[in-house]
Specification:
The complex is a heterodimer of chains A (278) and B (307).
Chain A (H helix, E strand, L loop, with lengths): L6 H27 L4 H6 L11 H41 L5 H10 L5 H14 L7 H24 L3 H9 L4 H12 L1 H17 L2 H6 L7 H10 L10 H36 L1
Helix pairs in contact in A: 1-12, 3-6, 3-9, 3-11, 3-12, 6-9, 7-8, 9-12, 11-12
Chain B lengths: L12 H10 L1 H28 L2 E2 L7 E2 L3 H8 L1 H33 L4 H12 L6 H11 L5 H8 L16 H6 L8 H12 L3 H9 L5 H11 L1 H17 L2 H7 L10 H11 L3 H30 L1
Antiparallel strand pairs in B: 1-2
The chains are: A mainly alpha (278), B mainly alpha (307).
Chain lengths: 278, 307
């Protein structure tokens, strides 16, 4: 990087650097304190401890290992099927002609006007009364439904903008809609599919309220487990083992760190292009 | 909404059914989505609106009670306090949603060179790897009596300001609203930055010739041209904060007293803790109406300014 040439540039970079570092502070705080024993934590909240206590991670791992697996299963399955269903619907809306197309699309669009809190309570009762073969499904199915509107809107726009000649050529060759979708449309839309997947991934990974209501203890996802691990949820006066607590926070961020190590660029590009146009 | 009534002419009738049959593959493609949406979106929304007028415990058939739930909600003192709280939250939240991302977007946009801009953009997007619930729990520890915030105040000689931020009636709500300094939401930042990038070069050149640089340029060029993005952020922020209740639920349980209770939390507790589902849904319906009104007003304001 070239050195800044003007005072203004220096000032801008200074302000940005400070704000940027402050917004990274929670990460720093969790990491350094995850290596402290209770005494070190009480003495100093900000330093890198002189002697490290990695055993905190063993305690934390015992608490978050199975919720981590649950979160991975729920997030991966939900996002995958969100895409699968949305690809089919977006294809129909973008490239097929049928009676009721506009009405059905308006119905999808109307979902954006229904806020989550409105359906939360009825959804909770409905899921509880539903006899599902697997407890995971009680969060996966509503999560797939919740992702449809956004995914269909973005994918429909992307499919409509595919070069018409290629689709036409495939049709003349006698390819069915299913073949065109699988062999032409999807392969040509990989970037936008990745964008939609990672934009959707974050809220699904973070979801707390509905999972806390419908998942049993064995199927609890990370956010729910973290609140229980922290001790009931209230800011209670009793002092928990902060080192282990911080270690559990760090562990719960690892999957997203790994993901973004590979996909940060497409996340930024996806948000600034695809999402805005939708 | 349009109704899908077929053409009234008798002669058109067979063609309509033929056209319907011709679209069978499309309907097959749409089927999985609409089955899920029907069960997990449309039907719950229908239940929410209809059961708001009933006394319902979630299991037994509801009994119709007309507007009784709404009368109760509008006269409930807890609801009054909750509404005042969410009002403050919406107003302050709007400022926090717009100003910090805008300032940072401007600063980044005026850096020299796309590589440097990309580096700083990335810096502000990185914090999204922290799960939002973890951020809440971390800030809970920052706000504790022995937490980072009080230590910071002590070290700069403001020890008199130290307090138990979340347990204090006067500060608990502000502590939750102002949680998450420096409030640079990654999505809002990228949205505004993309907006700045899309300002045509010749507009900027002309502005420079007219002497519009620095703050004057921001005021006369950037802000008017960023109006669609700013409007989107404002609406998202208002709608988001009006229904937000994660931090009161997880951190304070709406307390101390009702200091951090918001209508959405009241709805949650009324249903989940006390089993009064009909009443809870009337609160949800009221909140929904308020949100729709706010959105319509915002749209009117935006349109009036656009003319």
């Amino acid at each position: 990087m070239r050195p800044p040439r003007s005072l203004g540039e220096l000032l801008r970079q200074g302000v940005l650097l400070i704000l940027g570092l402050v917004s990274l502070f929670p990460i720093y705080f969790a990491v350094v304190n995850s290596f402290k024993n209770p005494v070190q934590y009480a003495q100093n909240l900000l330093n890198v401890p002189p002697s490290l206590h990695p055993e905190n991670y063993l305690v934390a791992w015992r608490a978050v290992a199975s919720p981590m697996v649950n979160s991975l299963v729920v997030t991966f399955t939900s996002v995958l099927f969100t895409l699968l269903l949305a690809v089919l619907s977006a294809y129909a809306f973008a490239l097929m002609r049928f009676v009721g197309r506009r009405v059905l699309f308006a119905l999808v669009f109307a979902l954006l006007l229904i806020p989550d809190f409105l359906t939360l309570i009825p959804l909770y009762i409905q899921i509880k009364s539903l006899d599902l073969p697997n407890n995971y499904l009680s969060i996966i199915l509503p999560t797939i439904a919740a992702g449809q509107a956004f995914a269909i809107l973005v994918l429909k726009t992307a499919f409509e903008n595919l070069p018409k000649e290629i689709l036409e050529a495939a049709r003349i060759d006698g390819a069915s809609h299913a073949q065109i979708l699988a062999r032409v449309v999807v392969p040509m839309s990989v970037p936008v599919l990745i964008s939609v997947a990672i934009i959707r991934l974050i809220p699904v990974w973070n979801e707390f309220i509905l999972p806390s209501l419908v998942l049993d203890e064995a199927h609890r996802t990370l956010p729910v487990a973290l609140v229980y691990f922290q001790g009931g949820g209230n800011s209670n006066p009793s002092t928990p083992n902060y080192g282990a607590l911080m270690a559990s926070y760090v562990l719960s961020a690892v999957p997203l760190v790994v993901l973004f190590a590979f996909l940060m660029r497409s996340y930024i590009e996806g948000l600034t292009s695809g999402a805005v146009k939708a | 909404m349009h109704s899908a009534s077929p053409a009234p002419r008798r002669a058109a009738r067979p063609t309509f059914w033929k056209r319907l049959w011709a679209g069978r593959r499309a309907y097959l493609f749409l089927l999985p989505t609409f089955v899920l949406l029907g069960y997990f979106a449309y039907y719950p929304a229908y239940i929410a609106f209809t059961r708001a007028f009933t006394d319902w415990d979630g299991f037994n058939p509801p009994t119709f009670t007309g507007l009784e739930n709404f009368r109760r909600a509008l006269t409930d003192p807890a609801m009054g306090q909750a509404s005042a709280n969410v009002g403050l939250w919406i107003v302050l939240g709007l400022l926090l949603a717009v100003i910090p991302p805008l300032v940072v977007a401007e600063l980044i946009f005026h850096l020299r060179g796309p590589r440097r801009q990309y580096a700083y953009r990335t810096l502000f997007v990185v914090p999204i790897v922290v799960p939002s619930l973890v951020l809440l729990l971390l800030w809970t520890t920052f706000y504790r009596t022995d937490g980072v915030l009080n230590q910071l105040l002590g070290s700069v000689g403001l020890g008199a300001w130290q307090r138990s931020w979340l347990a204090d009636q006067d500060t608990a709500l502000y502590a939750l609203i102002f949680l998450g300094f420096p409030y640079v939401d990654a999505f809002y930042l990228l949205l505004l930055y993309a907006g700045l990038q899309s300002i045509p070069k010749d507009v900027l050149e002309a502005a420079k010739l007219d002497g519009a640089v620095g703050p004057r340029r921001v005021w006369t060029i950037d802000l008017p041209l960023l109006r669609p993005q700013l409007f989107l952020i404002a609406v998202l922020s208002v709608i988001g904060n009006a229904q937000y209740f994660l931090s009161p639920l997880v951190i304070t349980s709406g307390g101390p007293g009702y200091a951090t209770t918001v209508p959405a939390l009241l709805m949650y507790n009324t249903a989940v803790k006390f089993g009064e589902y009909g009443y809870a849904l009337s609160i949800a319906a009221l909140l929904f109406v308020v949100i729709v009104l706010l959105t319509v007003v915002a749209q009117r304001v935006a349109r009036a300014q656009g003319d």
